[in-house]
Metal-sulfur cluster assembly factor (Levilactobacillus suantsaiihabitans), 109 residues
Amino acid sequence: MILDEDKQLTPAESQVMKALEMVIDPELGIDLVNLGLIYDVTVTGDTCRVDMTLTTMGCPLTHVLDEAIKQVVTAVEGVEHCEINLVWEPAWDMAKMTRYAKVALGIHE
């Protein structure tokens, strides 16, 4: 989920977040948003910056995810360019997943 819970998303940023729900992690079968891998989206002009992380460093599917992200983000009206900012801090952990993702993966708290 978005790190700064107080951030008000613009309509374009909300559309990007919705579009990112279409990008499924091929190993887990859950979308990147519900997995908690998307930390922030910012749309400025016709460019969107996606701050995100991965479940593990050295993920062999990084290029697959990058292409899928760029495809859905640039399909949002008014967004022509997508910059992906891959970050490792804060580190991802299962607590960042939504309840939906936890239930889908059989994780019970």
